Amino acid sequence: MRNVMTAALAGLALLGFASSASASTDLTWPPKDVQPVHKTKAELQKQADEFSAHQKKAFPRAFRGAKDVVPGNWGGEAEGVFDDMQYMGNSVTFTYNGQKVNTFTQVNAPGFLKASPKEYCETTTCTAIVNDHRGGVTVFEKLDQFGIVSARNWRPNGEVVWVQSWTQGTEKQLAQLAEDRAFTFTEK
After folding, report:
1. How far apart are CA 97 and CA 66, in angstroms?
2. Structure confidence at residue 18 (pLDDT)
3. Which residues pair with 149 in a beta bridge?
4. Which residues contact 5 (CB under 8 A, 6 or more apart)?
5. Exposed/middle/buried for 170, CB within 10 Å: 0-12, 13-18, 19+?
6. Rg value, the chain, Cα
7. Dist. CA 42–CA 20, nearest whole Å
8. Residue 80's pLDDT is what?
């Protein structure tokens, strides 16, 4: 019964998201005066370490009761490779409601991704677009063929942060993580 209620509430929440979609899709992208961020390998490694430490705290908050949160190594095309990267990502595994969950997080520097939320949704299956109440927009996506759900957060400074999972029904938690301003290439 609890699962049925949770599914029903999640469905209603997504319907609510969809109702605010029209205003949110008009985000000007890329934002004016975007300042690209270029960091050294040492700066990126320091940031990766900070991101991992934050993931250990943020994932149990987003996924209430998550245990055994294990962030993977951050990198670009390969773990630990930071050659003037304008993005970096990692995987995080944890146990949630008795099952193993795998996620992937990617943090993109200002100006790295050129497609607006609306343009992005023209190329994939977006289920909702909502304002994040910080001047940004969060796009929810579902790729049935791969069993992936994701939340992507476009930010006023030109950054895009996304978190995806292979566990259905986790969109709300993914959005909370994607909107978390601790995951940023710029100063906090």
Report:
1. 7
2. 40
3. 142, 165
4. none
5. buried
6. 16
7. 41
8. 65
Tell which phi-psi region holds residue 11, choosing left (phi > 0), alpha (psi between -120 and 50) or beta. Answer: alpha
Both tokens of 60, joined, read 């149990």
Consecutive 10-residue runs of the chain (188 residues): their mean pLDDT? Answer: 34 40 63 86 91 98 97 82 83 97 96 93 96 94 96 96 97 98 85
At residue 142's C-alpha, the angle toward residues 137 and 145, to 5°, is 155
Helix (H) or strand (E) holding 9: helix 2-19
Asked if residue 117 has a cis previous peptide bond (ω within 30° of 0), the answer is no
pLDDT of amino acid 11: 41
In the structure encoding, which two tokens stand for residue 164, read together?
């995806």
How many other CB atoms are found less than 10 A from the CB of residue 71?
A: 21
**Alpha-helical segments (H) within 20-98:** 21-24, 41-62
* pLDDT reported for residue 10: 39
Q: Which residues lie across from 100 on neighbouring strands?
A: 95
At residue 105, the 3 state secondary structure works out as strand
CA atoms within 13 A on the CB side of 66: 22
Residue 103 in 3-state DSSP? strand
Q: Are 52 and 90 in contact (CB under 8 A)?
A: yes
pLDDT value of position 157: 93
Read off φ and ψ for residue 23, nearest 5 degrees: -70, -35
